[in-house]
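Quick question: what would this complex look like in 3D?
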Amino acid sequence: GAGVSQSPRYKVAKRGQDVALRCDPISGHVSLFWYQQALGQGPEFLTYFQNEAQLDKSGLPSDRFFAERPEGSVSTLKIQRTQQEDSAVYLCASSQQGQGRKLFFGSGTQLSVL
Amino acid sequence: SQQGEEDPQALSIQEGENATMNCSYKTSINNLQWYRQNSGRGLVHLILIRSNEREKHSGRLRVTLDTSKKSSSLLITASRAADTASYFCATEAYSGNTPLVFGKGTRLSVIA
């Protein structure tokens, strides 16, 4: 596609509800990243895929967070039993492989947990 | 955790003036990148400078890198109201499979 696409754009969840956030990267991009951005802060790394392999999930804040990219293209970030502290913008980015890569970001999903 | 620390946190200037933002980081890097984020949008890549480079230009942007001081600066010349955004530095470590680590950003307001 023309760019990285994320859906939904906005999500309001009740505390305890499960949510699923979708990312459609740029076609042919091998690497896919999820970041969490709190209001007024920079993006914080969550997890990274190279093709379908999840190479780094060190940034996931708890075992309630789970990400997958089963066919090496679309990725889903799932948050179980959402808490108020999960409220943030979740950004997805993709890039070509290799060092010196620049990231192409989607517009993000703004999650509000009430 | 965030490696980069941008300075200042917020900057307000008049249209036509130059804007300078600084970034400090903690560990050795392969390259440093600057991104821009308009309110409610994703980040957009501006410029990348490698660890063996000291200065790079792209249009009205000038980036410097001092690896001995672990710092970088972004200069926007002849600013425009459309430059109003948040600017983030991001560092990539040497190992290659590590993610970009972003700073907290500088919020730039350019007043027409």
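Answer marked as accepted. The mean pLDDT of chain B is 92.
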